Structures are given as structure tokens and as C-alpha cells.
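Human: Note C-alpha cell order:
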Amino acid sequence: MSMTNLSAQQLRQAANLKEQIAGLEKQLAAIFGAETKAAPATTKPAKKGGMSAAGRARIAAAAKLRWAKVRAAKTKPTAVKNVVKAKKKFTMSAAAKAKISATAKARWAKIKGAKK
């Protein structure tokens, strides 16, 4: 619950508790003969790293330049086109397909039989 949503009574109660804690810490200090440190206030951790707008702009400009070079290289026509003959697609014979199918069926039958 945030402090803005607390009632006046709740705020007064919180202030009283803080006063009691401070008094108890003083009593501890008197017993031990040294000051005890109060609990540190919670602070946000320091922001690490970060990048300035100018740094982001430099990186973006460099990336655009790299991509422009890639696109330019793709659109350049080559002087001599290498004509590559398309390789004949491998086709399996019907006998080979039947042999593989039979082997697979036998293997699955063996696995299913072992489970039962």
C-alpha cells in the first residue's frame, strides 16, 4: 500500500512505530557501548550502462550502411552468369520403398510386442 492511500490514523501509527524503533536502537547502543547503525533506507540500484541518443544514432546509421551494401551487391548484374545444370532428383525404386516399409513395420511390431 502506498503512503498516499494511508489514513491520518495509520500515518500517526507508523510514526509512533518509527519512534519506538529509534528508542530501542538507542537502548541497544547503550548496552553494547557502541552506536548501532540504523537500517539503511531502500534505494534504487544505480543504472548500469545505457546508451546516449547519439550512440544509438551512430549504430543505426552504420547498420543502414551495411544493409545498403548488401542490397546493392544483390542487385548488381554479374558479367558472366554461371549456368549450372540442375541435378537429377534422386528417385527411389518401388522395390527399395517396399523393402524399407517392411523393415519399419517389423521394427514397430517388435517394439509394440515388447510393451505388451
